[in-house]
Amino acid sequence: MKLTFRLHAIQKMFERQISAGDVRWVIENGEIIREYPDDTPYPSRLMLGWIVERPLHVVVADVPADGETIVITAYEPDPALWEADFKRKKGQSS
Question: Which of 13, 29, 65, 80 is deepest in the core (most CB within 10 A)?
Answer without folding.
Answer: 13
